[in-house]
Each structure stands twice: as C-alpha cells, then as structure tokens.
Amino acid sequence: MLDWPPLARFTFRDLANFAWAAANLGAKPSDEWIHAVCEAAAVPAVAAEADASAVAGLLYALSRWRVRQLPETFLRSLYGTTASPEALKR
C-alpha cells in the first residue's frame, strides 16, 4: 500500500476532482496510487462529506482507468454513502 500522508488532507471532492481531471487528460496513475486514493476516500470523515457529483466523478475516473479490483474498505464506504437517498447529498 502506498503510504502517502498528504492524501489524508484532501476532501472527497478534492480526490474525485483530481481523479476525474487525470482520467479526462488520459493519465493513468499506478494501481498503488489508485488504491491509496480509494483508501483515503473511504476514511469515515472524508466519505461523510461526499456528494452525488463527487461520487460520480470518482467512479467515472475508476471506470476510465479500467480498475478491476478496489479496496474492500472503499467499496463498503461507498455502499454506506450511497445506500439511502438521505445519506447522499445532491
């Protein structure tokens, strides 16, 4: 796992915006970096501030990069964030 402490300072929107922009520019970070971003996005305090467009942007980037495996913590966090309409801000 990539141990890059600066990722802990970013908001969910920051992580999603960077991923979206990189994907649109055709850049593909290493799998290790992608997993580190997903882990940072799964931190409860970060995931709690996710909104619908940020979640969509991050998922768009992951699909453009054709990511096949995601950390389980990210998937559980994403499910918890999007499982109910009340949980996900628009």
Which range best describes the helical content: under 10%, 10-25%, 25-40%, 40-55%, 55-70% or over 70%? 55-70%
The average pLDDT is 86
Q: Give the strand content.
A: under 5%
Q: Return the structural class.
A: mainly alpha
Number of separate helices: 5
Low-pLDDT residue intervals, each spanning 5 or more residues = none
- Main sheet attributes: strand count, strand direction, barrel closure: none
C-alpha Rg, in Å?
A: 12 Å
Which term fits the overall shape?
globular
N→C terminal distance: 32 Å
Tally of strands: 0
* Number of separate structural domains: 1
Order of helices and strands: HHHHH
List keywords for this structure.
single chain, 90 residues
What does this structure look like?
With 90 residues, the chain is mostly helical. The protein has one domain. Helix content is 59%, strand content 0%. The chain has helices spanning 12-24, 31-42, 44-47, 52-64, 72-82. The N and C termini lie far apart (32 Å). The model has no long low-confidence stretch (mean pLDDT 86).
